[in-house]
Structures are given as structure tokens and as C-alpha cells.
């Protein structure tokens, strides 16, 4: 544009119709400056859309790097470089009982067709005990658990203690839960135990120790059951004995008060006397009737009538003694029979309690609960089971990609709403 303007100016100056008048230098310089400004403004308008700076590499790929690349790199670094191998020892067992609960285990007893049945409740009890704090204390005291968790070559994640797992009982218990798993198969009630350690012999030793503690717990349950049964039997015997003694004392008081040892025997004797009196009265009355018919005025009839009268009075007296008053033999016999019945029941109860106590003593010599091993503790010397590097890497990658997808989708939605 500057060249064209200059040419036009030059041509105008060479026009023969006009006089050649030189342009003032100030005006030419001003025109040139204005021309340069117009050109700069035009160039700026044309190039302005392309003048925006492109975002940096981190801004464009930072989310992917932070959610995928970094986690996968850290996981690979740990799994393939830092992680120490951990060996596994496994075992499985079932708790059986020689005295199954018929109400709960009838179907199991029929299916097994043996004298032992599965002790379902006890299986869960033993399984929970194997991962309890009590077992951790026993392992620390008797099986050198702290040294097993701090072997040379152990990595910082699973070593104990470490900078992020301080040395205290609670952290030790949490670390032991990573080391040991105990699960019960609900369909078979078989308990499966798995122990991992930095050395195969350590894992095997801990597994054997756990089985020993399980056996000790079962024996403790047996002992507690035997003691409870024995204590209950002794208490029943004591109560029955006290009941018998109380009834005997009451019976003695009754005899002392009534003056009768056995009202039943006394009643039989009274009945026999009354029977004899009736027999004698009948004989006398028959004699009186005969004498009155043969010799009505005989002097001996008066004596016979007096004898008959005396017999009748004796019979009535005996009847009153047998029944008809609170002090009669019938009332005494009723009280006596009640006491004898209570005594018989108390004696039967005492005999049953004594028999149960003897049975409890005999049961104490038998083992009602016991652990039946399904598989012996394994000693894995060939290869470590953990870490599962490939599987864990794929898991980290999958989770990282999911997180990246969610965050990127969220960022896209947020940018669309704020645009």
C-alpha cells in the first residue's frame, strides 16, 4: 500500500498539466505513519484468532497422569521391586460332637449315620477364636510372632512394626488380621484357615500353633460343660437331700404329736378289735334272744343285756376313735399318707439326682467335642502365593481408569455449565 501511494504521488508530480511542486516533508512523513498504523491494525485483526496460546501438556494430560499413570507406576514399583514374597500355609478342620443336639442336628445325624455329628455353633466359636486378640497374645508369648512379622527382607507395607504401624497391641492385632484368615463354609461347616508369612516355615509354624490353640479351646469348652453339668447335678442332689430330710423331720414331729408310729397299722388293729367286739356282741344278743324265748324270767338275762350294752358302747367308742373327729385315726392316717407320699417323691427325686450325678461323672471321662482335621497344615516351599503382581496390577489399572473416566466426565459437565 505504501508503494502504491508513492507511485501515485510520483505520477501526480510528473503530470505535465500541473506544475511540479514538491510535497512538504512533514506531510509525507505523517501519511506514511498513518499508513503503517492502518496496516498494523489490519494485520492484528487478521491474526488475532490464531494468537491464543495453546494449553500446556500438564494441563491437557494432568488428570490422566494423576489418576492412571502415577497409581499404576507406584503399584508396579511396589509389586515388582519392593514387595517381599509371602508364603502361605493352609489347613481345614471341622468340630464334631459325640452328643449332638437332637433338635438341631437330627438331619445331620441321619445323614452321617455315625455316633458323631457336626457341632455347628462350636465350629463358629473356634473359627472366631483363631482371629481373636487372645490368640495374638498367645502367639506373641509362645510362638515368637513379633519376630515372624519383622523378618529381614520384609517390605515396609507388611512389616511390623513400621513407621505407619506403631508397636502397640491394637496395631499388632490389625496386622495379624492381614496375616490370618479363618472362614467357615456354610454348606459343609468346614473351617478353612490360611496364614501368610515372609518365610514358609513361619507360616507353617503359626498354622500348627493355631490348631493347638483351637484344640485347647475345645478342651476348655468340654471342661466347662462337664463342670457345669457336675455342679448342676450336685445342686440337685443337695436340694433333694434337703427335701427328704425336711419331710423326715416333719414325719417325726407328727409321730411325736399323735403318739402313733403308723396310723395304717393302728387302723388295722382298731378294725380288728371292732370286728371282734361285733362278733362277741352278736353272740351275746343271740344268747339273749334264745334265753328270752326259752325261759323269759331267767335271772341271767339281766347280766347278758348289760354285757351287750357294754359291747355296744365299746364299739361306738372305737368308731369315734377311727373317724368322726379331728383327733380320729382317719385324720391321722390322711396326714400320715400325705407325708409318706411326699417322702416317696422326694426319695425318687434324690435317687434320680444321684444317678444323674454319677452319669455326669462318667461323661467327664469322655470327649464330647473334638476337632477333626480335614487337611494337615501345608508347607509351601516352592513359590510364594503373595503378592499376586499381575492380578493386582490389573486391578489397580481398572480402578484408575474408572476414576479417570468419572473425573473427566465430571470436569466436562462442569465446564459445559460454566461456559
Description:
- This protein is α+β, with helices and mostly antiparallel strands.
- Among the domains are: 2-51; 55-83 and 387-419, no CATH class; 262-363.
- It is built from 13 helices and 5 strands.
- Strands 1, 2, 3, 4 and 5 form a 5-stranded antiparallel β-sheet that branches.
- A hairpin with a 6-residue loop joins strand 3 and strand 4.
- Helix 3 runs antiparallel to helix 13 (389-418).
- The longest helix has 59 residues, at 200-258.
- The two termini are 42 Å apart.
- Residues 1-23, 45-52 and 100-115 have low confidence and may be disordered.
List keywords for this structure.
419 residues; alpha+beta; 5 strands; rod-shaped; disordered N terminus
Task: Give the topology, please.
Blueprint: H1 2-13, H2 25-47, H3 57-82, E1 87-97, H4 102-112, E2 117-118, H5 120-129, H6 133-142, H7 145-148, H8 169-179, E3 180-184, E4 191-197, H9 200-258, H10 263-294, H11 300-322, H12 329-363, E5 369-375, H13 389-418
Antiparallel strand pairs: 1-2, 1-4, 1-5, 3-4
Amino acid at each position: 500500500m505504501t508503494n502504491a501511494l508513492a507511485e501515485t504521488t510520483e505520477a501526480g508530480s510528473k503530470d505535465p498539466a500541473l506544475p511540479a511542486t514538491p510535497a512538504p516533508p512533514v506531510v509525507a512523513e505523517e501519511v506514511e505513519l498513518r499508513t503503517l498504523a492502518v496496516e498494523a491494525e489490519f494485520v492484528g485483526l487478521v491474526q488475532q484468532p490464531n494468537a491464543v496460546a495453546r494449553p500446556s501438556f500438564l494441563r491437557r494430560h494432568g488428570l490422566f497422569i494423576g489418576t492412571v499413570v502415577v497409581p499404576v507406576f507406584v503399584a508396579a514399583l511396589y509389586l515388582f521391586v519392593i514387595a517381599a514374597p509371602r508364603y502361605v500355609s493352609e489347613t481345614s478342620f471341622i468340630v464334631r460332637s459325640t452328643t449332638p443336639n437332637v433338635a438341631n442336628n437330627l438331619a445331620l445325624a441321619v445323614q452321617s449315620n455315625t455316633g458323631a455329628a457336626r457341632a455347628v455353633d462350636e465350629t463358629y466359636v473356634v473359627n472366631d477364636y483363631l482371629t481373636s486378640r487372645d490368640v495374638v497374645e498367645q502367639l506373641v508369648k509362645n510362638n515368637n510372632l513379633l519376630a515372624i512379622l519383622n523378618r529381614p527382607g520384609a517390605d515396609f507395607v507388611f512389616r511390623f512394626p513400621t513407621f505407619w504401624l506403631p508397636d502397640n497391641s491394637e496395631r499388632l492385632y490389625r496386622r495379624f488380621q492381614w496375616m490370618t484368615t479363618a472362614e467357615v463354609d456354610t454348606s459343609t461347616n468346614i473351617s478353612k484357615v490360611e496364614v501368610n508369612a515372609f518365610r514358609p516355615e513361619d507360616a507353617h509354624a503359626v498354622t500348627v500353633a493355631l490348631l493347638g490353640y483351637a484344640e485347647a479351646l475345645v478342651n476348655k469348652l468340654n471342661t466347662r460343660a462337664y463342670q457345669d453339668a457336675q455342679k448342676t447335678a450336685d445342686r440337685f442332689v443337695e436340694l433333694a437331700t434337703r427335701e427328704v430330710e425336711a419331710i423326715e423331720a416333719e414325719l417325726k414331729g407328727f409321730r411325736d404329736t399323735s403318739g402313733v408310729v403308723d396310723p395304717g397299722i393302728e387302723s388295722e388293729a382298731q378294725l380288728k378289735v371292732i370286728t371282734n367286739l361285733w362278733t362277741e356282741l352278736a353272740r351275746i344278743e343271740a344268747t339273749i334272744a334264745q334265753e328270752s324265748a326259752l325261759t323269759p324270767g331267767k335271772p341271767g338275762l339281766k347280766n347278758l343285756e348289760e354285757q351287750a350294752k357294754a359291747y355296744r358302747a365299746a364299739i361306738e367308742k372305737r368308731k369315734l376313735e377311727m373317724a368322726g373327729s379331728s383327733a380320729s385315726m382317719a385324720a391321722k392316717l390322711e396326714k400320715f399318707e400325705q407325708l409318706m407320699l411326699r417322702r416317696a417323691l422326694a426319695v425318687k427325686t434324690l435317687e434320680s439326682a444321684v444317678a444323674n450325678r454319677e452319669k455326669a461323672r462318667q461323661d467327664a471321662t469322655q470327649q464330647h467335642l473334638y476337632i477333626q482335621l480335614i487337611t494337615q497344615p501345608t508347607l509351601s516351599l516352592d513359590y510364594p502365593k503373595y503378592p499376586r503382581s499381575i492380578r493386582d496390577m490389573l486391578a489397580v489399572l481398572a480402578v484408575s481408569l474408572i476414576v479417570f473416566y468419572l473425573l473427566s466426565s465430571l470436569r466436562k459437565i462442569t465446564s459445559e455449565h460454566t461456559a
